[in-house]
Structure formats: structure tokens, C-alpha cells
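Hi,

Apologies if this is the wrong queue. I'm a grad student, and the batch job for Transmembrane protein from Paraburkholderia silvatlantica produced an output file that my downstream script rejects. I'm not sure whether the problem is my script or the file. Here is the sequence I used:
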Amino acid sequence: MNAERLRDMLLTLRFELRRSYGLPGLVGMLMIGAAALMCAEIASVDADTKDMQDSGRLTRAAKAHRPGDTHSAGTDAVALDALPDLFPRFSQSADDIASIFEQARGSNLTLGSAEYQVNTDAGARFTRYQVMLPVKDQYSAIRHFLALVLNNVPNAALREIHVERPAVDGNMLDARVRFELIYRSAQP
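Support response: The file is valid. Your script probably expects a header line. Output copied below for reference.
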């Protein structure tokens, strides 16, 4: 019984409002109400945005004035002296070359005869071992091979890559890839 009574009251209210203001007046009141709700939400979003900007400013200011972030030259020198110990010795070079060839077999690449060159500067703490590999395959296979080598041989660096397409309509590429393997020198 209450539901019917409520329904009757709402119908009466609707008819009274329609009689007093008309259909355009009711639509106008509805639009004013929606605009008021939107203004309240926009104010809330603005307040949240200002809070986020203020916290970002505080974070940046705290990072700028943190005294623990200053490095001394002595700390950097100690870190620089420890750097060569992070690299393997030259005796691991055969294992690294074998790993490179294994990555090529895993990528189903056709390798040509490789060229090798060892460079050690006088008094240097590192030995550089350059390996130049002629590769013939599709672009995606060559790219996959390069990624595998760089991910699996941590002391390898891609020094140079030269790619040629012998035939305009072909998808096979001739590439020359030069890796540089870096080792610590036997000298102290």
C-alpha cells in the first residue's frame, strides 16, 4: 500500500511541477542540477590535482637537498679500481667464442669464416678481442642472433654491423658483424 501511495504522490508532484513550470522549465531545472553536480566534481578533481602537484614538488625538493647523494672523488676512484675485476680473464675467450657460435647454430644462421684480432694497449687494464663474422640470412634471424649473443655473453659489445641486400627482390641479407669481447689484462 505504501508503494502505491508513494507513486501517487510522485505523480501528483510531477503534474504540479509541470503545470507550474511547463516542460521547458522542468528540463531547465534538470540541466541546472546537472551543472551544479559537475561543478562540485570539477572542484574535487582540482583539489586532488593540486595535492598531487604539491606532493611532487615536496619529493623533488627532498631529493635535491639530500646530503647522502653526494659522491666523493675517493669513492669514485675505488669503484673505478674495482671495475676490471668484474670482467673475465682472457683465458675465457675460447668459451665466449664457442658461445657465439652456439648462438648462431641456435638461430640457424649461415656463418662464413671469421676473422679475429687481439688488441692490448701498453699499460692498459683491458684486452680487446675483436671477432668479425660474415653472416648470411634474413633480417629477423640476424637480429635474433645479435640479441642472443649480447644477452648471453656479458663482456661482448656489438662494435659494427654492415648489411647488404644482394638482390632487390630477395629477402636474404649479407651482413658483417663485428663483436668486441673485453677481458681484464693479466697485468695488475
